[in-house]
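Assemble and predict.
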Amino acid sequence: MAWGTKVRGGLGRFFEYDTPKIVHIRSLRVGILYRLVQLTIIAYIVGYVIVWKKGYQLTENVESTVTSKVKGVVLTNVSLFGEDNPTERVWDTADYVVPPQENGAFFVTTNVIVTPNQQQGICPELLPSCSKDADCPRLSPSANGVRSGTCNTTTGSCNVYAWCPVERDQEPALPVLNGTEAFTVLIKNQIIFPKFGIRRRNILDSFQTNSTYLASCHYDPVNDPYCPVFVLADIIRLAGENYSAIAVKGAVIGFVIEWDCNLDLPVNWCLPKYSFRRIDNANDVSAKGWNFRYANYWTDTESQNHTVQRRTLVKAYGIRFIFYVYGVAGKFNMVPFFTNLGAGLALLGLAVIFCDIAILYCSKKRNFYKENKYYEVKDDDAFLIEESQQSSTNRSPSYSDFQ
Amino acid sequence: MAWGTKVRGGLGRFFEYDTPKIVHIRSLRVGILYRLVQLTIIAYIVGYVIVWKKGYQLTENVESTVTSKVKGVVLTNVSLFGEDNPTERVWDTADYVVPPQENGAFFVTTNVIVTPNQQQGICPELLPSCSKDADCPRLSPSANGVRSGTCNTTTGSCNVYAWCPVERDQEPALPVLNGTEAFTVLIKNQIIFPKFGIRRRNILDSFQTNSTYLASCHYDPVNDPYCPVFVLADIIRLAGENYSAIAVKGAVIGFVIEWDCNLDLPVNWCLPKYSFRRIDNANDVSAKGWNFRYANYWTDTESQNHTVQRRTLVKAYGIRFIFYVYGVAGKFNMVPFFTNLGAGLALLGLAVIFCDIAILYCSKKRNFYKENKYYEVKDDDAFLIEESQQSSTNRSPSYSDFQ
Amino acid sequence: MAWGTKVRGGLGRFFEYDTPKIVHIRSLRVGILYRLVQLTIIAYIVGYVIVWKKGYQLTENVESTVTSKVKGVVLTNVSLFGEDNPTERVWDTADYVVPPQENGAFFVTTNVIVTPNQQQGICPELLPSCSKDADCPRLSPSANGVRSGTCNTTTGSCNVYAWCPVERDQEPALPVLNGTEAFTVLIKNQIIFPKFGIRRRNILDSFQTNSTYLASCHYDPVNDPYCPVFVLADIIRLAGENYSAIAVKGAVIGFVIEWDCNLDLPVNWCLPKYSFRRIDNANDVSAKGWNFRYANYWTDTESQNHTVQRRTLVKAYGIRFIFYVYGVAGKFNMVPFFTNLGAGLALLGLAVIFCDIAILYCSKKRNFYKENKYYEVKDDDAFLIEESQQSSTNRSPSYSDFQ
């Protein structure tokens, strides 16, 4: 044959079509079985994976910022800072939000133990524990400081190097700051889906137009689900807790903002959903609730050349709000769609495998089906030669021989 | 047949090969169609999924730490702390970075409203709102404190329990701290991809050798893209904002560090990319910009046994920088590769399905093709028996009967 | 044919079964090859993807909160605050944890440089750099403040507007706070897997019953792997660092908590794993270790109507602990399982492709196999007509013609 012809031959061969030979079995039973299995698989792939589980979408997690601004004042009537100061005392934001700003969290003081005007010195520790100096090993640490080695006979407690006087750390019974539940907090949450280039904020653009609504509204899951101003009492109630109980010893509350955005729908439908939950264990046996200590330091010039460093120690109980912003955006994308589709098509193969097993092994007419499905080819190296009578060119199936 | 033979038989059967019978159709039209469809699918899988979308890589998100150190001083010439203090006042890092350290963020004060030496007491609130005591319901909260129930006739505003004197909260016109744009910040960002065990930092090892570069360089997207020292003015400019405008009322700026690492390439190519964007809404109607209040507390010993607690209230406007470290590392991994490949192979099946539909339903010669592709087998339970003339052993196709 | 019949016909056709015709090749060689390839693929899919890589599980990342409480006191014996104060000085939590609370981190001071009682004024800067006023350009910034334009002849350094006296910023040799390594920190970590609705805490419920264990235990990777109280010295040791070295200039330490939860197993087996690593670069050339400055402000009433604002500047070196909570939960889910299975089934197709290539191209008997596998159909539009002798109805293969 001429070379040219060969090429045309090869080229022709490339442009020919290979399709599997199909055995078409006209059996109602098998047919129904086949379609049922197929149907189940298709229902799973299309209905569940693609549609229900949004298998056609590429998803991305949210990136977000939250800033908060607490508002409110309370008037207390307890003497905390010594008798000289007026017992009426007002607490404003600068007093009860400590530290003034945090990243992704904020703290509202609800209860305090104040120890004013401490200075370094030697004084008796709180708990009586000694009768003689020997009971107070020098330099041994104690809750309030480091023991000086002497026993204070009047109080019956060891003397300690410490900030004197030492803190009276009694368990609080009632919250000192009474009325914090009425405080409001303005939340600003900006999110972005970098890959999709979508930016959203929890303060809807519609609010920008009427600032009066923002100024007056309070979040309510039913009536005002998009108002960014929250009353502390509401937050605690929605978290399923009792404010007056929490206010005494403090708590850690999760402030959850969820954004579940289907970007195949109008982007305006991508809205925040707020929820709240208590995070610390209400039944903790150790360090229950939430509190921490901080101090304000200054130096007194007692005389011309005598200065004393002093501090006011505050043990603050309160509610620590921690922000969690979750949320995913989904958008149609070829890769997940076709990957799921491809895997699905492959699963369709299971239908044939399943039915073949049925007709070839479980059916009474298995031999008949085998004869028709299989086309026997014997190769010379087969060691079963003695068992078979057929020639390598024999076209007729002969499985029956092996039964 | 002997048992031994049976086993050898079964064993032999297991070690035989099943391959689908293929109908090879020598038609140029169909052949070309077939290859085109195949080509498209292969191009999609190999070109798009595997190569372009890196379908052969396992990806992992970055874990990171960022620490920052701001440097710079400004000299202000306004009297903020009462006339007794020198009007020249220097602000250094300890003064304008509040709180001194944050996790994943830092704040630089650009503007302040200072209310020095407040003390608890009763004084008129800022806004005139009363002519007689009846206008000031006792204990009703106000912006500055809690109303005492009397009206201050001189100021025409209600008396409040508050930190006195109350803050003069006028809208700022110019930033008090003039020159903050020249401040520099040193950023240290350490990242880790735990699964891949890769650690990188934004201060390249090459810099370690010449500390002079680090000491002198300033980040520039073009000339110094890897210098970890940033001038605030540059950051704001690159965020597309106007510093002098922002300095007045503050802003929240996202400091984005991106690590996009292909670990199949040399790890040294895994480098940070910086970008900046304003996060708060420049057009906010409520609480525009960024500010917060904090106070410094101390106690004055006015006489032997008379102490007064005082505070200096600061309303700080400024720029809050929040760090976002994104980034993924990708590395070749069998699972994603073969999963995508397998799903791809399955999609190739679409080519046959597509062409079969073409030749079996759309082609003029459909019957001819059907005769050749299908091999008819009639089962006794078929209820179509009366329509067909062939016997269950009949080998020759007979689709034509059904047309 | 009647319409009714046609419908029944069509209906019947739908409920018939199509299964590919299989060429069964009884060749031991090919059979073994075939099964080997199949086995490899199945081993990969089932063994590696499904079982080893848990391809049957849907995974979710952890959401977590960490709160910490540091305990301990140290007694220092250096004069930091001027001679008037007692040299024995106690540091408690409120003194050395700055800021008092952070989100996801905490800082423990180990070393300080204190500059007490600074006030705004003009004083010589630290480093001698001038001999005449001309060397001190007015308003040029310096490390300590802004130059006033005059040279202080006694110190030979420029006068600056600054907080006076300026900080003596010598490199620290020994840590001032000696004994911080004995401090303990109580960690509370609450995690949640929202999708799975699973909540866990690092303080095991079993501990709730005996609070004495919590009060006394210290974390130890071997003996007390679940005790939530950590000794700082242990943390640093486990991070592979030397505490006394770190205490001088500070460091940033990653406090890693890992939760690797297989929710197909009892949820009680989902337990935290702690590990620690140094994050900052021990060999940094610039700003080595970790330190920052903060100040305490107050106002002195020096006379009836003369007040001076003062501050105490603290440069704090210390260990910054940053929490990383990683962890995934996996739970059986149909979608990943079937997606991996489907992709796997498709890969099985590779076995046939592989063996077909072997027998059709690499085998000596390739023609024999081609004859049996392929079933030749010639279409009239084929341009190879002249090369073939067979008729379109010819059933017998004729590949040999093309060799």
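Residues 62-125+166-331 of chain B form a domain with the atp-gated p2x4 ion channel fold fold (CATH 2.60.490.10).
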